[in-house]
Specification:
heterodimer; A: 122 residues; mainly beta; 7-stranded mixed β-sheet; B: 109 residues; 4-stranded antiparallel β-sheet
C-alpha cells in the first residue's frame, strides 16, 4: 500500500527555522516525483515545488522560489520542506504528494500525505 | 504560468440533483492535462479525474469530466450525501507547473 506519512504539527515563532518531512512507503520512492502543496486556512491549494528523489532534481513555483528549500534523502525514502526564517504568513497546512507515473512530470497527483499544520505566532 | 478560474464559487444543491462545475484556463492546456480533485474538511484532496475525462481508480461513474483547450467541466450526475465538498481543477501540462483553480464548494441546499 502506497503511503506518504508526514511529520507532526509544529508551532514556531517568527524568525525560527523549520524542516518538515514526508516519508514514502509501499512503492519505489526514488522513481516518482514528490510535490509540496500549501493550503492556508480556508483557502485553496498552491503548488510550491517538486523534487525527483532519484537525483534530487528540484523545481520551484515562481511564488515560492527563494522562500523555501525542498530536498530528499532517498536512503530513507523521505522528502523535506524547510524554511530558514519563518513568518506569520507561513501559517498553513503543507501537503506532500506523489505524481502518479514514474519519472514523468506531466502526470496528476495520485497519493497525498495527511498534511502538516505549521503555525507561526509570536 | 497558466491561471485557472473555476465557477461558480459555491453551488447549493440537494442530494439527487446534477452538479456542473466549470474550469477555465487562461491559455490552452496541453494534451488535456487537466485533473479534478475532491477535498472534504480535514482531509487531503483526492484525485477524481485526470486527462480531462478519465476517472481515477475507485471513482464512481456518477463523476465525469469533459472539455479541452481552455474549457473543462466536471459533472456529478446525481449528488450523494458524501459528494458535498470542495472541488479543485488542476493543470499539469506546462511542466513544471501544477497550478490549481480556486475551487468550487458544493454544499447542501
Amino acid at each position: 500500500e502506497v503511503q506518504l506519512v508526514q511529520s507532526g504539527a509544529e508551532v514556531k515563532k517568527p524568525g525560527e527555522s523549520l524542516k518538515i518531512s514526508c516519508e514514502g512507503s509501499g512503492y519505489s520512492f526514488t522513481n516518482y516525483w514528490i510535490v509540496w502543496v500549501r493550503q492556508m486556512s480556508g483557502k485553496g491549494l498552491e503548488w510550491m515545488g517538486i523534487i525527483y528523489p532519484g537525483d534530487s532534481d528540484t523545481r520551484y513555483s515562481p511564488s515560492f522560489q527563494g522562500q523555501v528549500t525542498i530536498s530528499a534523502d532517498k536512503s530513507i525514502s523521505t522528502a523535506y520542506l524547510q524554511w530558514s526564517s519563518l513568518e506569520a504568513s507561513d501559517t498553513a497546512i503543507y501537503y506532500c504528494a506523489r505524481l502518479s507515473v514514474p519519472y514523468a512530470l506531466t502526470t496528476p497527483i495520485d497519493y497525498w500525505g495527511q498534511g502538516t499544520l505549521v503555525t507561526v505566532s509570536s | 504560468e497558466i491561471v485557472l478560474t473555476q465557477s461558480p464559487g459555491t453551488l447549493s444543491l440537494s442530494p439527487g440533483e446534477r452538479a456542473t462545475l466549470s474550469c477555465r484556463a487562461s491559455q490552452g492546456v496541453s494534451s488535456s492535462y487537466l485533473a479534478w480533485y475532491q477535498q472534504k474538511p480535514g482531509q487531503a484532496p483526492r484525485l477524481l479525474i485526470y486527462g480531462a475525462s478519465s476517472r481515477a481508480t475507485g471513482i464512481p461513474d456518477r463523476f465525469s469530466g469533459s472539455g479541452s483547450g481552455t474549457d473543462f467541466t466536471l459533472t456529478i450526475s446525481r449528488l450523494e450525501p458524501e459528494d458535498f465538498a470542495v472541488y479543485y481543477c488542476q493543470q499539469y501540462g506546462s511542466s513544471p507547473s501544477f497550478t490549481f483553480g480556486p475551487g468550487t464548494k458544493v454544499d447542501i441546499k
